[in-house]
Amino acid sequence: MTGNIPVDMINLRLILVSGKTKEFLFSPNDSAADIAKHVYDNWPMDWEEEQVSSPNIVRLIYQGRFLHGNVTLGVLKLPLGKTTVMHLVARETLPEPNSQGQRNREKTGESNCCVIL
């Protein structure tokens, strides 16, 4: 898909634990929950072995952090017209942020968009 990505869209290359990848186009206004639902509704045929039972357990990991459902791609400042890689996992719940990560966010003023692994 690289090369013909619309300049106002973000191309996400999603990687499963198995190593399989698929690319999807999203708007900067799309949230992690929107992406999870879209991927669930358009689950790739070659991902059949990894099929999940619900969009509510599809989780995105970006730069080592789980994305919360309401975080948009725009908030992450992902480059438009480019490909960004994220991991996709099936997980019932998000891990609690660890206390060290919370203190670091308070010091740096970093937004509370993600959970540190």
UniProtKB/TrEMBL annotation:
The gene is ubl3a. GO terms for cellular component: plasma membrane. Its main location: membrane. Pfam families: Rad60-SLD_2. The lineage of its organism: Eukaryota, Metazoa, Chordata, Craniata, Vertebrata. It is found in: Cell membrane. Keywords: Cell membrane, Lipoprotein, Membrane, Methylation, Palmitate, Prenylation. This is Ubiquitin-like protein. Gene3D superfamilies: Phosphatidylinositol 3-kinase Catalytic Subunit, Chain A, domain 1 (3.10.20.90). CDD domains: Ubl_UBL3 (cd17048). Coiled coil: none annotated. It comes from the Eukaryota.
